[in-house]
Amino acid sequence: MGSVELVCPAGGPAMLRAAVEAGADSVYCGLADATNARNFPGLNFTPEELAEAVGWAGARGARVLLAVNTFARAGDTGAWRRAGDIAAAAGVYAVIAADLGVLAHMRRAHPDLRLHLSVQAAAGTPEAIAFYAAEYGVRRVVLPRVLNVAEIAALVRETEVETEAFVFGGLCVMAEGRCAMSSYAAARSPNLDGVCSPPEAVSFDEEDGRLTTRLGGFAVDRYKAGEAAGYPTLCKGCFEARGEARRLFEDPVSLNAMTLLEGFRSAGVKAVKVEGRQRGKAYVARVAAAFRRAIDALDAGRAPDASALPLADLAEGGRETAGAYRRGWR
Amino acid sequence: MELTLGPLYFNWPAEKIAAFYARIADEAPVERVYLGEVVCGKRAPLYEHALAEAAERLVRAGKTVVWSGLAMPSTPRERRLMAEMAAEDALVEVNDISMLAARAGRPFVAGPLLNVYNEAAAAELTARGCTRLCANVELPLASVAAIARALPGLEMELFAFGRLPLALAGRCHHAKAHGLHKDACQYVCGEDTDGMAVLTLDGEGLFAVNGVQTLSFGVQAATLDAAELRRTGVTALRLSPQDMDMVAVAAAFRSFADGDSATDDLRRALLDAGPCGPLVGGYLRGAAGAAPLEAGMRDA
């Protein structure tokens, strides 16, 4: 492992192997149910696949982490506790959780298993991080993407807990774990169901030679004939405000903070994370390889050449941003 | 059934705030009023003084005042303010986990902006001093009931009226809509006393932007009968301030909760008071939040 741990996504066993072979130090995954934030059909692991993956990765010096990072359903919290128990039985390196109830269960039932605080917990202050560390023994916190690099550096100075920062992939516009826009329009929610813009509520409607994308019946965007239509996500949609149609919240761009790797390393960030368990093995192979080379270059004293590692075609809408990590974004 | 007035989410001029709470103190049948800036620490100094005076006036009028903390404290100044608020003896509403350690086991209200979705999470908070939970607005009534059943000593407040707080961001989308950045925002959020309307390209109201916060365009109206509220374990209804006759809104809920008027009367009174969007309530039934209360059920 280099100076910064590279944490990559796996939506299934084949993607996990691709990530490790391309240079990931750690791979995170989820079980095939509502206990994780990428609850998509055909994605994720059975308990048996998880145990096999831990063994396979361990033999290659890589770690497997299980995300149990949605919020347990009231009156039905058993599945979330079971997910934690399955992780412990499989021998994962850490469980990534956000729900106070899940954290408490892990602390009680599996006190020796590492706990990482999911970005869904939106812990953005030293006080919040210290609370999770003191009460639940959290060893690492995944930082909210609303912070910029200077703020991250200040935060790392004030905390004893390891930090992990997202560097590539889909970009939540709102504070993670604190957004109910999807469920307002379409019932299912990232926090409760692990789904944003649930596919059953999406429609692509052709009207007068134009294509309108909708979520729960609400128009999210409109395209001219022949224009490539994006999947309707509310925070990236086109709406009317102050009498003008506009992308009010955010353009459909993806995060690529490769040029900020050195900044993260000097700030004392322990690990960098790639988003996209739903993106498949070709995606993770390319992104993991690019970041592996960039981290290795940094450690060898060379500046990583981002232009030599083109990833823009993997970005949503084909465009990238360093997002909130650069202060001007606000 | 207790009625409470939630914290004002919007950036109103200090004089408007003073007049609003003066009327609440004199006329509104609410027992408890939450005060304090929840959304944006930057604009808090604009009306700090007005809120302090409102607190005195409300207490003189016999109301319980509870100070609400910031939902997303981040600057050193905001963090210091939250630590000071947590150290007060008076009851406070916690809206971010940051405040919990400093509260050190003394009583607090868990606000609707905390991610408390189940009885196990709520139990973690009650073990640390939480005496009341205002349920997260996404929670269906069935979940509220499950939490109340598991923690019988916990007072349960329901977000019953007002635009729903849906999301928080690091970026100010209000400033962005004016071509400005958060750091030089000119407090443009003050132009929209109920939030800036966000319409779809079909012209349908969807959201309302209030600084770094996104609210629903629709106005939550938990017009549930008293028996159902009792079954659910709800002990208080929260009315969230909008720029309308909130005294009339409170009076309508009071009369309804006391059994002096029917559901239809309450809905008519709320519509007569001129809400800034259609009445919604789908979340309570496990449906989309934008759906009316009568919308179809889903498994909670």
Describe this structure in words.
Chain A has about 325 residues and is of the alpha/beta class. Chain A has two domains: about 5-170 and about 255-330, TIM Barrel (Alpha-Beta Barrel); about 195-245, no CATH class. Chain A has helices spanning about 15-20, 45-60, 80-90, 100-110, 125-135, 150-155, 180-185, 190-195, 260-265, 280-300, and strands spanning about 5-10, 25-30, 65-70, 95, 115, 140, 160-170, 200-205, 210-215, 220-225, 240, 245, 255, 270-275, 320. An eight-stranded parallel beta barrel of chain A has the order 1-2-3-4-5-6-7-14, surrounded by six helices. Chain A has a three-stranded antiparallel β-sheet with strand order 8-9-10. In chain A, strands 11-12 form a two-stranded antiparallel sheet. Chain A is globular. The two termini of chain A are about 35 Å apart. Chain B is α/β, with parallel strands linked by helices and about 300 residues long. In chain B, strand 9 and strand 10 form a beta hairpin. At the A-B interface, helix 4, helix 5, helix 7, strand 10 and strand 11 of A face helix 3, helix 4, helix 5, helix 6 and strand 7 of B.
Name the overall outline of chain B.
globular
CATH topology of chain B: TIM Barrel
The rounded Rg of chain A comes to 20 Å
Q: Mean pLDDT of chain A, as a whole number? A: 91
The most extensive interface between chains reads:
A-B, 74 and 73 residues
- The CATH class name of the largest domain in chain A reads Alpha Beta
Total number of β-strand segments of chain B? Answer: 12
Structural class of chain A: alpha/beta
Q: Share of helix among residues of chain B?
A: 25-40%
The span between the termini of chain B is 24 Å
CATH superfamily of chain B: Aldolase class I
Q: How is the largest sheet of chain A built, in terms of strand order?
A: 1-2-3-4-5-6-7-14
Number of spatially distinct domains of chain A: 2
Cα-to-Cα separation, first versus last residue of chain A: 34 Å
Mean model confidence by pLDDT of chain B: 95
Using only C-alpha atoms, the radius of gyration of chain B works out to 18 Å
Q: Specify the CATH architecture of the largest domain in chain A.
A: Alpha-Beta Barrel
Alpha-beta classification of chain B? alpha/beta
Summed up, the helix count of chain A is 10
